[in-house]
Every structure is written in structure tokens, then in C-alpha cells.
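Structure in, sequence out. Go:
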């Protein structure tokens, strides 16, 4: 009887050790898979394709679901990553969630970047817009590396952030946020408020087109322009525009509101301004205050003040 008890005890110890070892092996595999998923996100953030060999199998596949294209092998993965870093700068990959098992896993992420170069075959210009893309990557693991990865992302949201207009069947058009707000800056505007908002929008376009004579007719003789570097009179502001010292290239209007005090209209704008200053192209977020006076039945711009914002 004693021998039987000893045998049972021995068998229990053997099976217990096997169970513990099996659990530890699964834990180690999951840790390796999690690290691979994190390394993949770092590859996208840095664009350092020297890391690819350590993450992927030589015969791996990477599927770009949005564009229905599969990149094969290490060279294919490098081409995929390199393509993004050709048009994007300041890339940041925020990992929202990672879930892995022994053979499969996924990562939910948000990629933020700035569109600073043309996208080959897609967008022939650099919009210099900040973009944020939500996505998820499905991953298959094998032999301690990634055998296959598939990207699922919000492609429509991406192209709209670049300023695209998407026309749906039936004539419905989806606009970028900036364009939508520019066309409809406020809700339930009165006719008088909308008149000022439209005049301000036209003024930004005249500035972009260097229509100095048209602007001269709009500006009040005693108008004041407040910039970060100092104040200007009407003639000084017109001269700056005419000579190109400041080229107000494009103003994306995010918000606009109007208040009236008698024959005076005060317009508050929140914009992102793309300008060329001293030959250098710069993009900055501003709160712009414009004051219009009614003079002989015509609105005149009496003051324009720029306040730089800390966030875009």
C-alpha cells in the first residue's frame, strides 16, 4: 500500500511539473508575441527598416487591405514602410490595445503625422496638414517572428483630412472638416452675420491672390493690423502684401462668430494659416479678430489682430 501511495505521489509530481512548464512556455511565447507587436509599431514610427529582419520571417507577407495590395518578403515590408515615410514626417504610433496568443494577435493603434511631401500616385502636392489615422493590424506569428500582418485603417478619414471632397452616388459630397466649416462657419447665422463671414472669407482669398487694389478698397483709411512682430497701418499692410514679404497663401477657417455693436461688426475667427514669410513657408494656428465699420452703406475693415494659439 505504501508503495502505491509513493507511486501516485511521484506521478502527481511529474504531471504537476509538466503543467507548470507548459504554462511557462505559453507565457514566454505570449511575451515574445507582444514584444514583436510593439517592435512593429516602433518600425512604423521610426521608419528604421534595419529592424525589419529581426521582426519578420524572410518569406513574410504584409497586406495593405485599404489598397488591396500584398507586400512580400523583407524587401516588400521595407517598401511599404518606406513609402509612408516618404510623404509623412513627425510620425507617432500610439498603441491603444494589444492582444496576442501563441499564433495570432492584433494591435489597435492611432498614427499621427504631418503630410509634408506628395504621395506617389495619389496626392501630387504636400498639404502640410496634420493627420490622425485610426487602425488595427492583425498579426500571425511563426517561429518567434511575424509571418503575416494585415493593416485595416480608416482610409476615408485619412483622405478627407488631406482636404479631399468625396462624392457619393446621388450627388452627396463629403467635405473635409476645414472646408465644411469654411462653407458653414456658424449655425443659424442671421443674414447680417453671414454677410460679414462671407466678406471675411473673400478677404482671405484676395490676400492669397495678392489683389492689393481690392483690399485697398476694403481697408478703412485708419485701419490697424496687429501682427506678432508689431503693428501696421493700411499702407504698410498693403505694401507687405504687394511686395510678398508676407504672402497669406491659405487660411483654413475652423470657427467663425460675429457680434454687432451699432454699426460695428466684430468677427472672431479660429484659423490655420499657411503663409510665406521672408521666403519661408510656415503654418500656424491663429485666433484672428476683425473689426468692420459700416461707412456710407459699405463695410470697411478697421482692425485685424492675430493671436497665435498654442495648439492646432
Amino acid at each position: 500500500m505504501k508503495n502505491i501511495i509513493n507511486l501516485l505521489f511521484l506521478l502527481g509530481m511529474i504531471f504537476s511539473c509538466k503543467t507548470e512548464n507548459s504554462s511557462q512556455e505559453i507565457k514566454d511565447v505570449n511575451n515574445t508575441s507582444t514584444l514583436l507587436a510593439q517592435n512593429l509599431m516602433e518600425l512604423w514610427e521610426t521608419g528604421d527598416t534595419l529592424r525589419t529582419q529581426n521582426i519578420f520571417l524572410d518569406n513574410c507577407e504584409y497586406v495593405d487591405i485599404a489598397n488591396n495590395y500584398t507586400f512580400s518578403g523583407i524587401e516588400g515590408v521595407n517598401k511599404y514602410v518606406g513609402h509612408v515615410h516618404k510623404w509623412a514626417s513627425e510620425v507617432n504610433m500610439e498603441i491603444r490595445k494589444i492582444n496576442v496568443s501563441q499564433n495570432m494577435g492584433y494591435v489597435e493603434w492611432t498614427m499621427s503625422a504631418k503630410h509634408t511631401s506628395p504621395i506617389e500616385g495619389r496626392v501630387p502636392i504636400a498639404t502640410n496638414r496634420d493627420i490622425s489615422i485610426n487602425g488595427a493590424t492583425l498579426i500571425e506569428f511563426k517561429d518567434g517572428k511575424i509571418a503575416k500582418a494585415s493593416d485595416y485603417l480608416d482610409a476615408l478619414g485619412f483622405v478627407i483630412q488631406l482636404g479631399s471632397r468625396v462624392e457619393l452616388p446621388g450627388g452627396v459630397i463629403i467635405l473635409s472638416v476645414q472646408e465644411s466649416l469654411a462653407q458653414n462657419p456658424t449655425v443659424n447665422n442671421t443674414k447680417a452675420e453671414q454677410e460679414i463671414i462671407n466678406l471675411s472669407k473673400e478677404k482671405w482669398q484676395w490676400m492669397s491672390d495678392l489683389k492689393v487694389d481690392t483690399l485697398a478698397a476694403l481697408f478703412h483709411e485708419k485701419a490697424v493690423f496687429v501682427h506678432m512682430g508689431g503693428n501696421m497701418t493700411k499702407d504698410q499692410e498693403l505694401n507687405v502684401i504687394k511686395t510678398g514679404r508676407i504672402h497669406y497663401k491659405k487660411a483654413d477657417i475652423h470657427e467663425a462668430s460675429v457680434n454687432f455693436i451699432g454699426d460695428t461688426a466684430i468677427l472672431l475667427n479660429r484659423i490655420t494659416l499657411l503663409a510665406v514669410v521672408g521666403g519661408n513657408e510656415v503654418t500656424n494656428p491663429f485666433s484672428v479678430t476683425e473689426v468692420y465699420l459700416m461707412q456710407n452703406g459699405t463695410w470697411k475693415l478697421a482692425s485685424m489682430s492675430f493671436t497665435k494659439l498654442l495648439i492646432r
